[in-house]
Design a protein that fits this description.
Elements lengths: L9 H22 L7 H21 L4 H31 L5 E5 L16 E6 L4 E7 L13 E4 L5 H4 L7 E6 L8 E5 L2
Parallel strand pairs: 1-2, 1-4
Antiparallel strand pairs: 2-3, 4-6, 5-6
Length: 191
């Protein structure tokens, strides 16, 4: 398949497998003679079987509920971080500040969600190459050197900034979704 069963990408596969099991159950029960199996017994057996399977699945540390809860929290942090960046960039524009937003590799391969923000330049920071490239706005396509007042947006980059050795000393955190999470943070360059 290309991914572990605990990966979020396995959820659709698990869903389809569950549907297959339901169809198999329907097929098997429709084949049994009606005089041997009553509707009540069949219904009770179905409920007990489903409850047992769900109970067994919940015994695992990384179960379906746990994965979907974590996904919901991550997505909530993404939305709130983008909403907060919209407010911050709008206010900065009202103050007459030049708005340069730096972001790095993320789940968001498509930048359309970032284009909703107010900015002069949208800058991609390539962690592997240690290069800044202007993706949209003034100077599109050219390299960029970070300046005082730039915003660093960590929607979902998480620990990768720190693990890659990115120097955060010139930046001050101005917003944080949750101090216990490694993503959902906005910084402003102060040096």
């Amino acid at each position: 398949m290309g991914f572990r069963s605990t990966n979020y990408m396995s959820l659709p596969v698990q869903f389809v497998a569950s549907l297959d099991l339901v169809m198999l159950w329907i097929w098997a029960t429709s084949r049994s003679p009606s005089q041997r199996t009553t509707v009540g017994v069949l219904g009770m057996t179905s409920v007990l079987t489903a409850s047992t399977l769900i109970g067994i699945e919940h015994l695992e540390r990384r179960n379906f509920w746990n994965r979907t809860s974590k996904m919901r929290i991550s997505q909530d942090s993404w939305v709130k971080t983008l909403d907060e960046m919209k407010k911050i960039s709008r206010k900065a524009r009202e103050n007459g500040d030049e708005i340069n937003i730096i972001y790095s590799k993320s789940w968001f391969r498509n930048r359309d969600h970032l284009k909703q923000l107010t900015y002069h330049r949208l800058i991609y920071f390539d962690l592997e190459k240690n290069e800044y490239l202007i993706m949209d706005g003034a100077g599109k396509g050219s390299n960029y050197t970070p300046e005082k007042g730039d915003f660093l947006l960590n929607i979902d980059t998480g620990k990768r900034l720190r693990e890659s050795g990115y120097d955060m000393t010139p930046y001050q955190k101005i917003w944080d979704y949750d101090a216990d999470k490694s993503n959902g943070k906005i910084y402003r360059r102060i040096e």
